[in-house]
Amino acid sequence: MSENVNSSHGAGTGQSIEQKRRQNLGRMFNPKSIAVVGASQDPAKAGSQALSTLAKFPGKVFGVHPRETEIRGVACYPSFLDLPEPVDLAVLAIPARACVQAAADAAARGVGGIFIVSGGFGETGEDGAKLEQELAAICQETGLRLLGPNTSGFVRPSAGCIASFVPGVDTIAAGNIAVLAQSGGVNLSIGYLLDSLGDGVSLATGLGNAADIDAGDMLDLLGDDDDTAAIALHLEGVTEGRALYDTLAKITLRKPVVAVVAGRSDIGEFAVSHTGNLMGSRDRTVAALEQAGAVVVDTLDDLAQAASVLSRRRLPPKQNSAMALITGQAGPGLLITDALKTAGVAFPELTGDTQNTIAGLLPPMTFTKNPIDTGRPGPGFPDIVRAAAEDAAIDAILVFGISEPSVLDPAKALSPAYEATGKPVLFGTLGPASDLEKTFDDLKDSRTPMLLGPDRLALAGAVLDTDARHQWLLSHRTVQPAQATTQALSGPFDEDAAKQVMRSYGIATPRSALCENREEVERAFADLSKPVVVKIAATDVAHKTEVGGVILNVTDDAQLAEALDQIDRIPTATPGRVLIEEMAPQGVDLIVGGVRDPSWGPVVVVGLGGVLAEAVSDSAVALAPLSDTDVDHMLGSLRGKQMLDGFRGLPRCDRAAIAAAAIAVGKMLEEHPEIAEVEINPLRVNESGAVALDSLIVLGK
Amino acid sequence: MSENVNSSHGAGTGQSIEQKRRQNLGRMFNPKSIAVVGASQDPAKAGSQALSTLAKFPGKVFGVHPRETEIRGVACYPSFLDLPEPVDLAVLAIPARACVQAAADAAARGVGGIFIVSGGFGETGEDGAKLEQELAAICQETGLRLLGPNTSGFVRPSAGCIASFVPGVDTIAAGNIAVLAQSGGVNLSIGYLLDSLGDGVSLATGLGNAADIDAGDMLDLLGDDDDTAAIALHLEGVTEGRALYDTLAKITLRKPVVAVVAGRSDIGEFAVSHTGNLMGSRDRTVAALEQAGAVVVDTLDDLAQAASVLSRRRLPPKQNSAMALITGQAGPGLLITDALKTAGVAFPELTGDTQNTIAGLLPPMTFTKNPIDTGRPGPGFPDIVRAAAEDAAIDAILVFGISEPSVLDPAKALSPAYEATGKPVLFGTLGPASDLEKTFDDLKDSRTPMLLGPDRLALAGAVLDTDARHQWLLSHRTVQPAQATTQALSGPFDEDAAKQVMRSYGIATPRSALCENREEVERAFADLSKPVVVKIAATDVAHKTEVGGVILNVTDDAQLAEALDQIDRIPTATPGRVLIEEMAPQGVDLIVGGVRDPSWGPVVVVGLGGVLAEAVSDSAVALAPLSDTDVDHMLGSLRGKQMLDGFRGLPRCDRAAIAAAAIAVGKMLEEHPEIAEVEINPLRVNESGAVALDSLIVLGK
Questions:
Q1: Mutation site, B189, B190, B260, B274, interface A, largest A CB count within 10 A
Q2: Per-residue CA distances from A613 to A164, A196, A553, A606, A640 (Å)
Q3: Touching check for B190 and chain A: CB below 8 Å?
Q4: What is the DSSP letter of A123?
Q5: Other Cβ atoms closer than 10 A to B129
Q6: B331 CB near a chain A CB, below 8 Å?
Q7: Taking 60 as the threshold, does the pLDDT of residue B599 lie above it?
């Protein structure tokens, strides 16, 4: 069937399939005509709901029904092929088994895109997965686009297009935040949350099983969508990670993107039942999104709130943005300060000049360093906000005041500071509902973000800072291009062979010698600085330490002989082969590793070494290629990061050397597609550099 | 002056001051008559606001003003002493310097309690602190109670008493959640947040500087307040910690208490400026509140939401409560499941019978293990909820469904399950505002908690679980009473003396001998199992390892002689004194320590040993006396807890032995008030017990 479709369409128009796919994507999300397949009179059915929610659609609506010629005033036709025109969008509210034929018909009729409400595809097992693959093949071959299956659709309020089967969705207001969710239910949830914050959506889409249209396609569309000022993204698992990264990295410096990624805990079995996909590693997904410039939060509440704030105000790229807080009440001010500091936001003391100006506007004994605690808002409040905003060291101003209209008019107190400096000025408040509504209206014209309560104001500050930092990291990434390598590596790698590769990538290793017999060992021993470590060198011995194959602190000939005797007792196919190596200097042990992720490609992990670090999962991950700033950011995210800075008598670690090793591991994976996994464990680091004490390379199949 | 007051009142009535203080506390928070001191015509002044907000007060209101006889219809008198009756409550909206005289007058006139709006006391420095001490002294001597100074007051909607100077506070509805906040501004914030959730307050109090009435006083009052079903608590610092613990522990099994504690980051200087108090250790405050049965959350949003849920539904005491989730949409269901599992909530597979029943109510291929993903709510929904509730392994049911009135009527879907089983059934939803209002009204009679969105539903589930666990821990605490000891310890303690104390408390130490000369060492060496460790024993050597005073792995006479030679080279006032000790078995190293906190008394810390554990602050703290269950809970809260369970070839740790050591450390502190600090570092633990390898006792001044 799909060959059929292919031969009758898509060719001969002078347009490539890729161009057609892109064009059809635009058609379906800005439709001028829509068909509902499975149109129904029964209000409990999705096909009926679809008609209801499309009632206000300003374009043409048609029905497709095997028998009826009209349903609720909508003209119906027996099949796609009978439609009077090739609609931009078709809604398929029919069982899974009927969808493949319908998709073929839609493609044949020149429909732009379809969206399939029904489940019963990949998420239910093999038979469903086969149907889904057939749909995907039709799309690839014909240029027809498919949203879903297994989704509640999308909402495009500005176009009057409510392509969703859930009643009430039409109450979500038009606005400038795009929602892009892997799940239809989450798409609606975010839409309603934005609505409750007084924001609206430009386009809200639930991807469902994403047989054709995936997050990358939609981000590409939204990046160029003039109605969209910020994007709220929800992901469960990502199958084409590298493409998503590339798309996102092109957008985030222009438009803020906030994301929630499911999978903080192990929810694998239910997740598979839901979308038919494995979720992959959440850590890698989060790291990739952040590297691409997105802000990742943990909850939908935070997602909606963060998107709301970023759609209104944004800081320019900066590694650490400094905030000032002006509070009308000390107690909430303390909680906001606490939350911002906990989130790592810079909260510097105001300059002396600013403090003097502010002190002149407040009663004596009030706290003016930062936060500025006004005790209770007074007539000087607007000037205080402005003075703080004019402090050159401050990037954004947070203001909190419980509603007290007689002493604080937020619009008048905040706008002058923003207008004079262009710096974001955010307002946090609480009070009687009627006061809050009035304040929201008063702040509407200036688009000043209004946050309900201390926690949300602090969240907003942290989000502005994180967004600015991720922009900065993205725009400061200077990565060395990978070299096209001519020669593939061949394994298996014993420790010495792995270390040779490390050295070829500029990673220091201890001076050593690989010896085949005692005579060679004795010669090497004479040459090396003592003490040395003597290790069995055998590819058939996996756990050298456990079998007694690693002898440390060998300083004299007697100890050397004893060590070699001990190694000789370990059974191996290559008896007598040992690696003799200078003992490493004191330092802090790290792990630097890399793997090739099926979705994200080469990823690098940096963590503290040792069993406890493993038990508390103290590591950071990022996509290769890495820049120095990436590695610095990774190290800064480690819980035990103070271990690197001379903690408890440990040496101060050479971060540049750690960065060089991590960058090199990423490069190895990029340049050698045959490598599946690399691990340096430990990487011994002190003030004068980093040395790979042991390393491992595993080739892929 | 205060002597004056004391001589004229409080004596001769047959009532103790303590009784009078308690009675006056009740009077002031359920007042029948109120006086406003500093009553004013100027609407920007607190004295004017106080009159406005008291306008609806059903009892008598008087003004105190030096010149006016009437302000806005309220009769005014020149001073307290001229009032026609001893009012239950007086609001002091006058400058700090005038408050001491006013308090003395109020006491003389038999007023129940006063509340002082003004700042200018302890938070501003020494002079203010002196005023505050004078106020406290008047209260102690006369029985007059004082709320504040430096607070916005309190709200008692059911009594029509809005004793607060902030306009709009009178919109906060009457309800059954008490708010108790250290800060007046936070008190109002929580009140407004509860109001926005559709809940109201029974009594909302901001303590301010707490010169007299503190959190313990208020909790005592609220514990017996019939209008109060749950308590939302906000603390910054606690000065009388042990008393607060005792009060709280008497309440929490009857009434749920949720708390926020400021100070996650270092906000010391601003905090002092705010309340005049040092905040103390937040970790200890949180631990104490949790031990006393409270639920501690991080934000005011969570505080309000948790109090709302717990005021409606509560689980009985249980260590791990099991939850089931029934969701109308898979995507939000995944996020809820993820959040619950991340929070450590038990989320077991439903029993086979339950799954069968539910499978019969759903289309094939839906996920029924837990969560139950209905795809979209259908007619079987109420029966599914009920079947899950009837599963004996399940303690509470969470239901999520985006508003779809045509297929899901929440009241009908949820109530039968709750009525049949008595188990909490919580409803999470999102949708158009009008739908949500209707649903809220529909659920009002059954008091079913309604949570807006997946995150809050998950929070509610986690809070129910935590509340049940803390109740369980509190009701399962069996602690050994401390013995009255006759003999105080005298120090300083060298390692051997400290270990003797450890042994007297049942804590194992390595077999050892304290030797004064080589002859004694050699005799001991012959007796002990080899290898041994040889350590310098000198109270004037603080860092034994650093000076080369600890020699490990001594197995033969030659090594012993070498070790003793090395120790002989270390300068000390007690040359030749060494501790010789059997080497410890392999195991996992922990730290068990104890200190005497000025507010909380003896507290015990348990953590993993080593530098990294210190760098990531992986330790848990609790008040002594400890029970086994406390220590188990502490160990379970360690990030690296898998280190205790045979991680990566480490031995499985004997938790009972760890518990015994931690309990003993607490007991030492309780029985020996002269001890300031105890530390066992490391406590070496393996499958067969725990041994204190080194220990330290520091006596107080």
A1: B189
A2: 47, 42, 25, 11, 8
A3: no
A4: G
A5: 16
A6: yes
A7: yes
